[in-house]
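S1.2 Input.
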Amino acid sequence: MKQYNYKYFEPFIIFALWIILFASPLLFGQFQEGIDWTHVLNIWKNHLPLLLLFLAHRFVLMPYFYFKGKKVSYSIITLALILTGASLIYGLDKRLDEPPPPPPPYKMERPLEKPQEEVLGSDFPPHGPPGQNNRGPIPAYVNFIILAILIVGFDAGLQISMRWANLEQEKFKLQKESVENQLAFLRNQISPHFFMNTLNNIHALVDIDSEEAKQSIVKLSNLMRHLLYDSEDNQNPIKKEVEFIQSYIELMQLRFTDKVRIEVDIPADIPDKSVPPLLFTSLLENAFKHGISYTHPSFIKIAMSFPENRLIFKIENSNHFKKTEVPSGIGLENSKKRMDLLYKTAYDLNITETREKYTVNLNIPI
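S1.3 Output.
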């Protein structure tokens, strides 16, 4: 799928529409003796309610009613605005309030000035060019209704089309980013060293505590199954992600001594909702990779809570400054990019760092 940049297309179309609309009296008017600016200004004055209706439709009615699923309310409010504008124009139209011109005070009879029927006979048509009728110009309020319907329909069609095009683009980008994140995770985050160390620890447990060694093998198997199969879905139950976090932590604990304090605070009552897979793995890996020291006391605190329609994931780890520190921002940067694609502005990712502690706080909708 080829990607297109629609950033300037929609503003250009809207700008061109209003330029043509306001330029129409100058382009199509008949001004034999020069431009009648009074006539042009009257037309522009009648276009101002159309502009206000367009702005209300674009920035209020479509985003807060139509795209929120309130289509009945959208239709009623749009129709009410059009009729209200037409009523105001009808009431303010000066042509409707102008009294007819008064008759002349007297009329002088002239020999040749007789009614047309008396001179030409009743069989002749009235004086005037053929085909001419006595109807006046279209009333301003009728013209407003016609243009309002056309403008509202145009704007609705434009917004729906652009929204569909943008959604297709975002879908394509999200699929591509999801594949790249999964490959990067399998290649970098769960490194061969993790499996080698875990297997070595399990091997050592076989003679010491065979039952715990069996349980560790089951946990490692569940973790691999989640990585290879469950991550292919667009959404995973939160319970599965929590099980992955717990298996990961328990396997990592096999490597550390009592100097490393790991605290996990995840409530037992987990909502029956879903989140994108492997959402917390980069944050976990970063904490264990850079928050553990084999020579100094270290800690990792993991907490998860579920306020109304939100998920808050907080992870803290001890901060150990190293002179030859490997850059640790790649995983977090990938997480930010993925969050931008998944949630746009509906999430919060706050990172704070002091000499003693490194804290990541993630807040997402569920």
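S1.4 Remarks. The chain has a mean pLDDT of 78.
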